[in-house]
């Protein structure tokens, strides 16, 4: 298209093409290298019908304008460009006011000359601007932009995050953005869309801030006072070199100090407000920045593996396999597994050769003081308030697998009413204080919803277990003690002796089998809980059926090697359970070629094959007939095994990772949960009373803020003690920043 020269705002306005597109304004004062990169990215990533107004503030380096003439002479871009030439250097503020007038009735975009834009940047900025009629300005995310900086929040960096190209960084941020468009106290001038409406209402930049610094804050506060808002386009990332606009000279520091005084006097609320926004970890802005950081880096996940004890069992397998499956994903950058100080050998071996997995040893549930993961996932229920607080210290978002509500519903599993009520209160805290919830089955999630333990808007998902056979230690087979006389082909009933496991019904089935002439034995294997055990009822049954007692073997908790032996030598697994969160036993048994006769109670109706023979009624005589068929007809038993294995192929650890990832992504694009206390059955239940108390500023921090505000209110003394632009001022500011963060 064409390159035009203009000497006045009116002339520039006459040269700018008419249309409904905004006018992009690039103020130029020296900085040739930055300007050329700005031009190139602009022409490549901006629609051709968007006019560019370059404002020449008469710097001594004329190359930024010579290069435009050369480009249009050799290979003209598809854009109209108007250069507004100032007669002399007027400074940023007055130059921009001229540009605002030159733009006529169009919206304008302020694009610093040290900014590089990415694909679709302007379309997304405009969409954000018109997402609400009260939006005045829109600011883009950047690497160097105070409260809109990424990847390090509130910390400017001089490089494109992750070593990416600007275009790739912009694409990633756009693709992963939740488009929260958070509200902020002020426009930030590196890349700002300004609607003409707000210019009509509040006017131009105030010349009191000439030649520059603080003018956008004053403009923004005037706009806010009239009912407008300032938002962030959290789907736009631009690279900002930073420091090029005004430099870092002593004179500049003095000007900054003087202009900050004007802001303080006009808007005494502004400084405290910005500090609150910068420190608020629960805001839409914090969520938008986390989503951008996650998009730029790849998701960093922490896994709570504090349950990883000396020997692997079901929960340990879930932790290890979930971590390994997540680490296989290209969109996961790192998986940090928190373990006890003594890391079991099977854990080290499982993660060996996995470059994305980091083992981090923790001394109990003492809050972590280091950098947080984007999100922490606990694949099992919480057992104490300190665990919730610890999880919050480990990840910026927390997701917990609630497993099931069996104990929540059953007071028989607790020694005293107070213990049960405390457990229920902890379930409420977990439901309301974490950011996302997962469940082992729809049955479990429906139970949570029925109890009011699934907040309406909280991300949640049913995540079934993986059923592929996992061997974390060498798979050996060890006969449990006391079974030397046991004949192979026995019945096996596995599970902790809770009443809901319904082991008493297994005894009744055994009695009916003996009535039918079958003379095999029943092995009951599983740990004894402190409360809610069926062992007394089982003993009473055997007292009443003394002829059956020699055929019943009751084992306590068995090791994995002993469980392997039981599976390898049983003829049929009985699984008469009343309630299950998932129900892994039938799938384990099928791996060893053993059929299972199970109920469809709880989650089992979801996960078992539809046409599988099951315990549909608790009629011991009828169940005994089915059991005898499975025990004595190999074809019938093998069919059950094949059906379960085929169904189990649906429940893979890769599927687990996909489902977990979906929830982790959902919580990292939403504000963090602000709940710290809920009304429970024992009164008020806290995530942590200390943590709740610390939600208010500490006394030390309050004292520090009072001192800072007093110094701001006495500028003469402050100038004398800390001269603007001096090394002392820089040192004091850095020291105060570190002290505030520490407090």
Automatic annotation (TrEMBL):
SUPFAM superfamilies: Nucleotide-diphospho-sugar transferases, UDP-Glycosyltransferase/glycogen phosphorylase. Keywords: Glycosyltransferase, Transferase. Pathway: Cell wall biogenesis; cell wall polysaccharide biosynthesis. It holds the Pfam family Glycos_transf_1. One of its GO terms (molecular function) is glycosyltransferase activity. It is an enzyme of class 2 (transferase). Its EC number is 2.4.-.-. It comes from the Bacteria. The keyword ATP-binding does not apply. Residues 24-200 form the Glycosyltransferase 2-like domain. The keyword Isomerase does not apply. Residues 490-610 form the Glycosyl transferase family domain. PANTHER family: GALACTOFURANOSYLTRANSFERASE GLFT2, RHAMNOSYLTRANSFERASE WBBL. Belongs to the glycosyltransferase 2 family. This is Glycosyltransferase.
